Amino acid sequence: SGKRCNSHIMNYFRIQNFLNPRQNQFLFDWCLANFQTFVPSTVTTGDEDYRKSLVTYSCPIHDLVNEKVQTLLPIVSSALEVAVNSECWFESQVTSHGNKDYFKIHTDNNDPRCSRRILSYVYYLHSLPKGFEDGELALYSDLEKRDRTLITPDNNSLVCFASTTWHEVLPVVGSSAFNHGRFTVNGWINQ
Asked: Model pTM?
């Protein structure tokens, strides 16, 4: 079941145990088996110090997450007060944050190439027990980082928020081993 959360003026929607345990393990195992498809992440501005992580785009596993998000879209869009119409489309990627990886404050639709994004979601998966600390998703009311809300990257949980929300991934602390990373399926609904 999902939970709408209000923290100051930041709305987000969180679902624990988003997939069944078998599906969650399948996604995690796919990430580990396909390490060679992950490449260093980039940002649209080209700033090399703004984001540090690995990402893969050629990934069939995100369809599992996208399909389930689509079934919950009426509930999520209503809870977040983001109007989503039937002409929407999904885009997604799989990201791995290892030791000292991060993504500085940004919104998901502040560039012309991604201006059609209206709803963002992050599905978390990692080893059990967790092989890292920190790496929280921080949501902010504005670029000056006022009214911060921290979201712990719990395995098999999904977090949704408006793509206009200022947010960042705080630095991850842990092993440099790929299998101990903070993995996510990041997605955006466009219209």
From this structure: 0.93
